[in-house]
Amino acid sequence: MPRERIFRDDEDDDEDRSRSSSGGALFDRENRELDERLRPERLEDVIGQRNVVERVRVILDATRKRGDTLGHILFDGPPGIGKTTLATVIPKELGVDCQITAGPALDAPKDLLPYLTNATHGSVLFIDEIHRLRPAVEEFLYPAMEDFRIDIALGEGMNARTINMQLKPFTVIGATTRAGMLTAPMRDRFVYREHLDFYLQEDLIEIVQRNAKKLRTTITMEAAIEVAKRCQGTPRKANNLLLRTRDFATLEHPEGQITTKIADTALKRLEIDALGLERQDRRYLEVLMDVFGGGPAGLQAIAHSMSVPPDTLEDDIEPFLLRSGLIQRTPRGRVTTPKAYDHLGRTRPEQDRPPGTLF
Ligand code: ADP
Asked: Do the domain assignments include residue 213?
């Protein structure tokens, strides 16, 4: 019998997981509820990411066969791409307990202590945003991950002593949007490292259709394709668009089907363009073009001009712009590409540019 038990302890600390332009805490909460409702429960329900899923399946089968504890796993990739989904599916597949926390929720080693001491044999501790662990917490975690033991310092001065506590063997599953920000010792402690990339359109169509069923609504194939095209290759955004288009369909008819016409109207109202860019994405391009003449410009400078935290730009906005070839990262900073000018319907600048830039 699976003894899976899940609780999260980062309720107040992850408001910036969603982009700040999206409407703040309420949006975050709605988003999270939607995530939980639509999240696949088993590995067989995870759509796309075939290579990653296949490797995870092998890892799980081998672990079961050996009767071992699962090695520590790190998932990295942009927000909303399925890191939490895979991390929570794994303990369900193994029938073990799962505890959930996040880097920013752990201020000091003592915050990590209950998770470590509560960890049952073979259980999973999922640490979201693991790149944001404080150094002291990270160091406390090292021996726990390596030898399943922790050193606890008691008392101060002359009376100070350290006690060594043995833990049950357990597995850390880490998730990060910034694998590059992880310290080398932390990265090295993960036996398996998997990168999740943007989804193929066919997989997004399947996600949209499956989730429409879960939401007890219907969507035509054409409308599902439209949503899949405009969700920036990201399941969380696809789910969001599905929910928003469903609202428009309901207004038309209480049991309304989501048709292409409704999807188009909804996407227009939501200011999501043909490539799937949202207002904030276009603003990024406009700032880079208008304030910095197309670049090169540093992340901090762009963030300052947009009054948006640099982390939000790097995590939530830039990955898709880079992937779509609308911007490039050069050693001297970010630059817009000709495609960005074409996409915004602007004339490409004619000025002489130093060698190495894009025009
Ligand atoms: P991340 O942890 O990378 O930010 P999540 O795992 O929370 O992303 O994914 C957000 C939502 O997208 C999930 O609740 C789920 O509904 C959907 N989703 C993500 N990956 C998949 C997938 N491979 N198949 C089906 N749905 C997915």
From this structure: yes
Tell me how far the alpha carbon of residue 263 lies from the centroid of ligand 1, in angstroms.
22
206 in contact with ligand 1, CB cutoff 6 A: no
305: CATH:
1.10.10.10
User: Does 288 lie in the same domain as 191?
Assistant: no
Establish whether residue 49 lines the binding site of ligand 1, counting it when its CB lies within 6 angstroms of any ligand atom: yes
177 close to ligand 1 (CB < 6 Angstrom)? no
Q: Which residues contact 270 (CB under 8 A, 6 or more apart)?
A: 241, 244, 278
Which residue out of 17, 19, 83, 282 is catalytically annotated? 83
Out of 269, 302, 328, pick the residue that ends a domain. 269
**355 domain residue, yes or no:** no
- Measured from the Cα of 203, ligand 1's closest atom is 24
Predicted TM-score (pTM) of the model is 0.86
The packing angle between helices 201-214 and 221-229, to 10°, is 120
pLDDT for res 28: 63
Domain span holding position 58: 4-195
Euclidean distance between CA atoms 302 and 295, whole angstroms:
10
Tens of pLDDT, residues 311-321: 999 999 999 99
| 188/207 same-domain check | no
State the residue for tokens 């999501």: 272
pLDDT digits (tens, 9 = 90+) for 270-310: 999 999 999 999 999 999 999 999 989 999 999 999 999 99
In the chain, the amino acid numbered 272 is I
Residue with the smallest CA separation from ligand 1 atom 14 is 35
Decide whether any atom of ligand 1 lies within 6 Å of the 104 Cβ. no
Count of the separate structural domains present in the chain: 3
- Identify which of 266, 269, 279 has the alpha carbon closest to the alpha carbon of residue 227: 266
**184-202 confidence digits (pLDDT tens):** 999 999 999 999 999 999 9
Are residue 105 and residue 71 in the same domain, yes or no?
yes
236 given a catalytic annotation = yes
Residue ranges, the chain, pLDDT below 70: 1-31, 254, 351-359
| 46 Cβ closer than 6 Å to some ligand 1 atom | yes
